[in-house]
Q: What sequence folds into this?
């Protein structure tokens, strides 16, 4: 009964001069601003935020209308294009619709096709948009073919072109890498080389505890002219397996695949990174742990065990995996 009364009161207000007083625009500036609703809304007060950023007037009537007639549980996190010149009901209608900017997050070291699939789901891309992501937008220069689509959380306009999305992710990589750039120069390591090694570490490490050990082993193999023999490069060569997984199980026959990424057939680093690593792995590539090991494995508890000789490595296989 109380809600009916309030509804009648609101109808009366809408048809009276008081409507402008309560629901009218805060100002006259029609410049579009981005109002952000965070991914994690714990402790987030939407009405208070709208009032603080001056998109609605602060008064009990508007607050009651909002809390009673706006479906808070249906409001999606993201960015909404609003202006100070919008009436309160237009603001409420806008944020009850689809966001103009959406949150996109990924944290693991993914190949660019996987990033494209995430973007397709989030931004509503077509199959043609995804194809262009894989073949055009991420192939503007050899060093940007793979590895620079930094894993992070982004707020991306749904109408942003795939070309600009690629630049957005590359810019985030540049921003993260900048503090290490001079250190790579001092160490006489090309940033692309470090990125390749970082991507291998990211796909091989079981966690932060063994990143630098694996980095040291990769550098040792490179220094000795050994083939890297890293399974992750075989997974990259294969692409999606028969189960539709990008990094799924692989058959030993992949060791015979004459791809330049096959580190069992070809010595040295692959032509490009195999995924986009975060800054921790890029730092590990620059700062390997000193070790005499040339081989390693992870046991069933993801604990790393390394060996200096292949014979010792075979013993580790018997001890920890059989």
A:
């Amino acid at each position: 009964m109380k809600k009916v009364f309030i509804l009648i009161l609101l109808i009366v207000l809408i048809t009276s001069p008081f409507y402008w007083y309560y629901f009218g625009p805060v100002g006259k500036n029609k410049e579009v601003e981005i109002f952000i609703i965070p991914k994690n809304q714990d402790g987030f007060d939407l009405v208070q935020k709208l009032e603080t950023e001056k998109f609605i007037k602060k008064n009990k009537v508007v607050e009651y209308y909002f809390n009673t007639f706006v479906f808070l549980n249906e409001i999606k996190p993201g960015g909404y294009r609003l202006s100070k010149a919008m009436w309160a009901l237009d603001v409420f209608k806008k944020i009850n619709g689809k966001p103009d900017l959406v949150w996109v997050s990924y944290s693991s070291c993914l190949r660019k096709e996987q990033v494209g699939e995430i973007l397709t789901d989030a931004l509503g891309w077509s199959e043609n948009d995804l194809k262009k992501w894989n073949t055009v937008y991420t192939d503007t220069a050899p060093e940007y073919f793979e590895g620079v689509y930094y894993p992070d959380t982004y707020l991306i306009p749904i109408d942003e072109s795939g070309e600009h999305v690629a630049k957005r992710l590359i810019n985030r990589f540049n921003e993260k890498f900048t503090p290490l750039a001079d250190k790579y120069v001092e160490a006489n390591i090309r940033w692309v080389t470090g990125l390749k090694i970082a991507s291998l570490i990211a796909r091989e490490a079981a966690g932060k505890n063994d990143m630098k050990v694996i980095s040291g082993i990769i550098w040792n193999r490179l220094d000795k002219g050994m083939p890297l023999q890293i399974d992750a490069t075989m997974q990259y060569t294969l692409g999606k397996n028969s189960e539709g997984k990008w990094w799924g199980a692989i058959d030993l026959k992949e060791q015979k695949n004459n791809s330049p990424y096959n580190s069992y057939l070809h010595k040295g680093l692959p032509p490009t990174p195999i995924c986009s690593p975060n800054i921790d792995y890029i730092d590990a590539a620059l700062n390997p742990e000193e070790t005499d090991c040339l081989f390693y494995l992870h046991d069933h508890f993801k604990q790393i065990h390394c060996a200096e000789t292949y014979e010792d490595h075979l013993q580790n296989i018997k001890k920890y995996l059989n």
In short: The longest strand covers residues 33-37. Residues 112-291 form one domain. The chain has a mean pLDDT of 89. The chain has two domains: 2-99, 112-291.
